[in-house]
């Protein structure tokens, strides 16, 4: 029969004693100093939502620019879906997809010939924001 006291090691100083459980707990701990890229993903997601919603206040449909509306709506929905997947599963390869869609936002005014309008300014601002946040989040991944 053993007791609690007989099972303890009193000869080794407490600051030196390390149990196997402590070692396993140390291995499971995440490394310190690694920044989270979640704020960047959140900004990209909110920018994508703005891209979809912005058709109303900017007035794409009132100007008869259905091509601009559909370009921004499809791009915004796709960026929101890809960003949600990246936020939940941390797949670094999807950064290229988001970057490509942001590049489309920058090229769309030239390809679809918006002219200089509020839609052009919106696409350029949102495209630069998404591209910058994607690059910063990809650097953290």
Automatic annotation (TrEMBL):
Transmembrane segments: 38-62, 93-114, 120-139
Keywords: Membrane, Transmembrane, Transmembrane helix
Segments forming domain SPW repeat-containing integral membrane: 43-134
Signal peptide residues on this chain, from the entry's feature table: none
InterPro entries according to UniProt: SPW (IPR005530)
Keyword Transmembrane helix: yes
Keyword Zinc-finger: no
Any one Pfam family match given in the protein's UniProt record, by short name: SPW
Protein known as: SPW repeat-containing integral membrane domain-containing protein
């Amino acid at each position: 029969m053993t007791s609690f006291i007989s099972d303890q090691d009193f000869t080794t100083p407490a600051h030196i004693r390390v149990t196997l459980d402590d070692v396993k707990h140390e291995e499971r701990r995440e490394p310190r100093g690694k920044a989270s890229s979640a704020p960047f993903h959140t900004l990209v997601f909110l920018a994508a939502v703005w891209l979809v919603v912005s058709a109303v206040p900017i007035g794409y449909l009132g100007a008869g620019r259905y091509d601009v509306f559909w370009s921004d709506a499809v791009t915004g929905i796709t960026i929101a879906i890809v960003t949600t997947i990246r936020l939940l599963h941390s797949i670094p390869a999807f950064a290229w997809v988001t970057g490509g869609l942001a590049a489309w936002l920058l090229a769309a005014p030239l390809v679809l010939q918006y002219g200089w309008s509020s839609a052009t300014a919106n696409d350029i601002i949102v495209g630069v924001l998404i591209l910058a946040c994607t690059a910063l989040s990809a650097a953290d991944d």
